[in-house]
Amino acid sequence: MKPTLVLVGRPNVGKSTLFNRLTRTRDAIVADIPGLTRDRHYGAGRVGDKPYLVMDTGGFEPVIKEGILHAMAKQTIQAIDEADRVLFIVDGRQGLTAHDKIIAEQLRKSGQKILLVVNKTEGMATAVVTAEFFELGLGDPCAVSAMHGDNINELADLALADFPEVVEEFSSNHPKIAIVGRPNVGKSTLINTLLGEERVIAFDQPGTTRDSIYVDFTHKDKQYTLIDTAGLRRRGQVHETIEKFSAIKTLQAIEDANVVVLILDAKNEISDQDAHIAGFILEMGRALVIAVNKWDGLDEYQRATIKSDLSRKLAFLSFAQLHYISALHGTGIKKLLPSIDIAYAAAMADLPTPKLTRVLIAAVEKHPPPRGGMSRPKMRYAHQGGSNPPLIIIHGSMLNHVPETYRRYLENTFREIFKLWSTPLRVDFKIGH
Ligand code: GDP
Ligand code: GDP
Q: Is 230 in the pocket of ligand 2 (CB under 6 A)?
């Protein structure tokens, strides 16, 4: 799994600007779901051969009460604990503040390795601007400008120095499924039902217990790998101090999967935490199957109410197949694997250039793109720019004039013809030349 960098700092030091810099490369392929406004707080990036995940704790900032700083938000503290590296951002223009010192104190207590980042240093002499921050006792500060992009690669290199280069795996040839959901929705129960037996988990291995667990199984001669994020909580039952839900491990599991099964609890309202996890899935562009669990013991009226409630609230996930199951009684489970197969096939689909181009040309003949200014966009060919999620890149001229509605028309056409169900899909235009 990829190392996760967590960005910490008081408001306005430039965390979200730095976040955008560090995740910039992925912007083009993240899921693009209309009607969903969300702040981006988690994303993926890479320098050289080192991929990483980033989490910005800016969204979890505590309310500042009457000039006295409230303790850090619980989620921020947990993210710091679980981070592979913490980046503590300070403002080089404003200089060292009392608030910075309080955060530094908390960070020192965490025992984590901290990288001190002095932001907004464009046009300033590094030695001068960083000098006063040495007193925080967090080592050599790294001077950057998130806004101008100065020194960002060096920063990422420093942050990732302890992590090995990742040799790109051969794309696995079977579904790798992350089973995710908030605590108590029934993840462990579902996994046990799927595997047909109670599994024994190693409890007492420090450092490994919080990691997700990978389990291989076969069904009808097909191979699957389950990423069990519920493994986390067993530790929680032993040591109550550890939170049951780990945002970082869930994010990492989703990133590492090619199909995500999101479990919701029919007996509880959709919560912020459910929405948060759905946000991770969309951000990572993963194929998705939704399982509404605990469907047992409900009467027809309750079921109808829940169904209509869900279809309204989950409209932004309507690309996903939805199943009503009982993990406890095993009902509805059989249909889950075929949906996973479909989602996997779509996420990892091979889309040959000639066939993509034929579909493109036919779509353009049926509905030519509207003129933009003096000239009409010309589409010449399409090729596949990536998978998991599929990315289709269209080449031609004047493509910067193509309206969003037309892009969506092409996206729907490709989705229909190549049967790219259950997965986010991205169609981009190659601009220039
Ligand atoms: P956050 O609250 O920590 O997430 O901070 P933001 O990323 O929202 O940035 C706060 C303000 O600082 C915004 O007005 C940014 O444009 C500005 N800012 C961020 N990075 C830089 C930088 O490198 N140089 C300068 N001069 N301003 C920056
Ligand atoms: P996890 O935290 O997501 O792994 O959830 P668990 O699998 O540990 O389940 C939490 C609780 O919900 C347990 O008491 C389960 O017995 C119960 N549960 C799980 N699946 C079902 C189901 O399909 N129906 C009902 N009624 N209860 C369930």
A: yes
